[in-house]
Amino acid sequence: MPVRGNIIYTLQNSRMKNYNSGSLNTTNFAIKAILVCWLSLCSFGRLFAQKEVPTKVIYFMAGIKDHAGPSRHETEKDLLVLQRCLDSVANIKGVKIVTKFIYKRTALDINDMKDAAAIVIESSAEGSSKERVDPLFPQSPDNRRTYSQEVLDYLNQVDSLHKAGMGVVVLHWAVAATNQRAANLYRSWFGGGFVEGYSHNPLGMWTVTPIKSGQQHPIMRGVGQWTYKDEIFSRFMVIPQDPHRTDLLMGDAPKTNQGNITSRCITWAYEEGKSRGLIYGGMDYHSALLNDNYRRFLLNAIVWAAGIDVPKEGVKSDAKGIQLIERVPDIFDNMDSIINSRRARPGS
Q: Which residues make beta-bridge pairs with 170?
């Protein structure tokens, strides 16, 4: 009987071991299955999140540098700096910014703009040369009143892109459209613009101040007053009390090559339906981009035009380390001498 009892105990003990071993294997399998499911869900979640992040393409279009000495009218280098700043921006979340750049654009179709959330243009005026200097508008025919049907069809397509949500930011002399169709597009996109014979381009030391009524606009986030040397195309003609326009900055320059410039609005944001736009006639001196408030204003404007939320503190960027052309002294550093020389001319 003891032997038999030992046999019974041994069998029972063996069964217990087998049972425990089976339970352990089942538990391990369940844990592994849960881990696999969890990892799969995490991977799917990351993949889903990546797919959900929208992409915004910002297209920088620089016209040729056709006048002024080094450090001025540096259309290509100006926009490359702004592109570099947006490529490295760290405080914009929830969107992927992709930038494109072109110099001396000659196309008369919209294939390169179809994916753009915003285009940024800096150039000479489209009517300033017999050659094409503006990346958006071709040179004007002699009468400046119209374009060929091919060009008109192309510009109608550009207009359709803008109305569908492609933002437009126009800088420096590019604001001065003289062809009738080009000027009409600007008036439609910005609610006004440069008028030949009325608007002008004073060069001197400007003090630029945020307008109180426009300080709540996203473009003005983190932007304070600044003073700098610039040639600013200004004295635009606009529709009074236009509900789509938000005036943003006032500028004054007591000493310029065109006399005393009293305080005036020099830029505004324009929003109608899905379209957003901004024109700013400054940006002559390349080294001015080292000014934080000025650079932040430009970057905020571009981001806003592209339909991206501007951070509360404004777009943070650092122009240091970016290869900017060094400031080159010129005659406009001594504005008193220019003013006195003008006064000494007969008939002045």
A: 121, 279
